[in-house]
Design a protein that fits this description.
single chain; about 140 residues; alpha+beta; Jelly Rolls; 6-stranded antiparallel β-sheet; 4-stranded antiparallel β-sheet; about 20% helix; globular
Length: about 140
């Protein structure tokens, strides 16, 4: 018989690190073992498609599990869309993009290795979009 030591994790919102903030929202996160835990607040409508350019099919390849505390999120796949409403638990399979309504708050769990691959591309796209924004001013 294998006896496992308790290895649970918990955190208050104050313990989450704000990893990214922009007009559209605030992304807070913690890393627990091989999982990324996100607490995301969307202040304005948010579409992640521009950040996914360069990934296979220009869509997120990282699976996510989560709970929508408030608001609404549309998950777009190649051939259909799913609408996730406040109070719903969700799973997003790889090969998706999202559009999130203002006022949406969610908690999300993602495998860290896939999350890091996603962020490598997304951060390059964010930098490029920021550069384009300053080039036009």
């Amino acid at each position: 018989m294998v006896v496992r030591e308790p290895q649970g994790k918990q955190a208050t919102l104050a313990e989450f690190e704000t990893s990214f903030s922009m007009d559209e929202g605030i992304w807070r996160e913690a890393y627990w073992g091989d999982m990324r835990v996100g607490y995301e607040t969307y202040l304005k409508e948010y579409d992640d498609a521009p950040l996914l350019m360069g990934l296979p099919n220009d869509r997120c390849q990282c699976p996510h599990w989560g709970y929508l505390l408030s608001g609404r999120m549309t998950v777009r796949y190649a051939n259909y869309e799913e609408v996730v409403e406040a109070g719903s638990v969700y799973y997003m399979s790889p090969d998706h993009s999202i559009k999130v309504d203002p006022g949406t708050v969610l908690i999300e769990f993602s495998p860290l290795d896939e999350w890091e691959k996603l962020m490598e591309v997304a951060e390059k796209n964010i930098a490029e979009l920021a550069k384009e924004g300053t080039d036009t001013e």
